[in-house]
Amino acid sequence: MTTRRTFLQGAAGALGLSGALAGSAAQAMPTDRPKKFDEEYDVVVVGAGGAGLAAAAHAAEKGLRVLILEKMAFPGGSSAICGGGSLVVGTELQKRAGEKDSNELLFKDIIQTGGGLNNKDVVRTFVDNHLAVYNWFMGLGGKLQSDLLFSSVSANRGVEIEPNSVLQACLAQAKKFGAALYTKTAAKRLAFDGKTKRIVGVFAEKEGKTVSFGAKKGVILASGGFARNKALLAKYVPRMTNTLTICGKGCDGDGLKMALAYGADVADMPYIKATFAFNTDPHSINDSHYTYWEGGIVVNRAGKRFVNESIPKKDVGDYVLEQPGGIGYCVYDEPTRRISLKTARNNGSVLESEERGLVFKGNTVEEAAAKAGLDPKAVKETVERYNRDIREKGYDTVFGRKFLSGNMGELREIKEGPFYVLPSTAVLLATYCGVKINGKMQVVDVFGDVIPGLWASGEVAGGFHGRTYLSATAFISAVVFGWAAADNVLKA
Predict the structure, then answer these.
(1) Structural class in CATH, domain 28-272+431-492
(2) Rg of the chain on CA atoms, in Å
(3) Which of 108, 396, 435, 487 has its CA 20 to 30 A from that of 457?
């Protein structure tokens, strides 16, 4: 008797494919493992970005036989093009600066920024391990871009990591202990063992052929987000479908879809946000600036403020995208410009934007506004009202701004020329959401049960950020969670 299951298996075989790559009728079903894998390892890591390479390095150095699958021609993913700003408590830079900070304060800041919607177990895993992992990858060869600290919510704890130094160090460590890296090899489906009821490998496409890779201890998904997948964006957060995107070219949601086939739950999907502030013709991640966090304000085409500029940059981005043309005009003066040029995360972008003619300069606020195509009178009135509030009240009475950024930085008047207007927009850099995981990085299904043999870390996983992203946590959390996933595979 031919059942639906045997029919599907027969059809797949007739096409010369495994069940993993069968037609649409089988795409969202568990895919049986082959009788014999083409190659077998202890751990298969899907994706060679910050999370994947950290996972591979840690698993390999602890004696596991590791395979890394990367669908692009080279490793790195979005981590290779990120800015590298990272929040770390307890660094030597903090100690030398005499900065008062703690893990509990960082935990509180992450939870509050996320609106309390974060998975607290996941946040706790990050907070408890981030300094040790930072010291680990710096010891392997990671480097800093500068010796400057930058502020975040409640403390000066931000460091400028050179992302590619960390990626190279982790890859070298992984290879040193025998890990294999297959590039141009796209993972397509997870392999399931019906007897043990666990994920035991991966089906992938390599040189036009389907290849199966066994994973005796488990699979770690570190395949990135889905910022380049318009269909998934339209499904989960339609307002982001047509937003400008800058991210790794492989961010198509492959790992998310593979996990969904096994009933994986998702987390933080409604909270996908674009990042403010990029100039209006962004070429890379380095085209963002923070003049509004250094002393400036943001106005719309009518010359009016519309947001408390001190809130997280992704929340500012939400407000900006609601304005005409999706543009927010950053208005600032010469002292703010000079401060921005000294700040590690600002100098290149501000100068480049000026050189490309994207910044409008005037001896008065009205002159700069007119050059930017704004109503000079309206912008002048907005600046004067803002300055008066600071001078007389010490804070902004219109939107309640009390600090430059987060809970730090004293507001100052915009009053010393020349004056500048920099048209800016919000860009989708990452999705910061995905499959639901627990504090051990294990993927959890819609019933709250662990999917045996499956871990996830980095941008493919959700739960860490909650309602919004805390600036400078993406890269460091990816590496920490990759390391933590491997550490928990070792304990499994």
Answers:
(1) alpha beta
(2) 24
(3) 108
Token output for 263 = 């009933």
Query: Cα angle vertex 110, ends 108, 112, to 5°?
Result: 65
Q: What is the rounded distance in angstroms from the CA atom of residue 320 to the CA atom of residue 330?
A: 11
Other C-beta atoms lying within 10 Å of the C-beta of residue 237: 18
∠ CA 34-35-40, nearest 5°, is 75
Residue 362 CB: number of other CB atoms within 10 A? Answer: 18
Q: At what angle do helices 163-176 and 474-491 cross, to 10 degrees?
A: 20
Strands (E), 207-245: 209-221
Q: Model pTM?
A: 0.84
- The structure tokens 């900070």 sit at 101
pLDDT tens for each residue of 26-49: 345 678 899 999 999 999 999 999
Crossing angle (nearest 10°) for helices 120-140 and 103-113: 120
Contact at 8 Å (CB) between 213 and 201?
yes
Chain-centroid distance of CA 296 in Å reads 26
Convert the pLDDT of each residue in 95-149 to its tens digit: 999 999 999 999 999 999 999 999 999 999 999 999 999 999 999 999 999 998 9
Q: Which residue has the tokens 């100039």?
A: 279
Condensed to tens digits (0 to 9), the pLDDT of residues 328-351 reads 999 999 999 999 888 755 556 888
Rounded CA gap, 161 and 143, in Å? 6
CATH of domain 275-427: 3.90.700.10
338: three-class secondary structure by DSSP: helix
Q: Where does the chain hold its CATH 3.50.50.60 domain(s)?
A: 28-272+431-492
